[in-house]
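ok trying this again, last paste got cut off
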Amino acid sequence: MKLLMDNTTAEIFTNNTAFKTRLKHIDVRQAWVKTLRDKSIVIPVHVPSVDNLADLFTKILGIDDFQRLRDQMMVSLP
């Protein structure tokens, strides 16, 4: 499964290049993500912010950005 992300902090977390934290819940999550990555269950992939379809559901967008992302998502069936 490809995990598309545009957040640099999430990319560092997923690629396990962050230093150990003092917050145990972050360390446990990082270990789980590392396991998924090492077994090739999750493959982290960078996606530019401009093309991030998740923004359609998570951010208040201007009309131009909304229409562009909506049009990328909508697929006409024959």
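PB: full thing came through this time. Strands lie at 2-5, 43-46.
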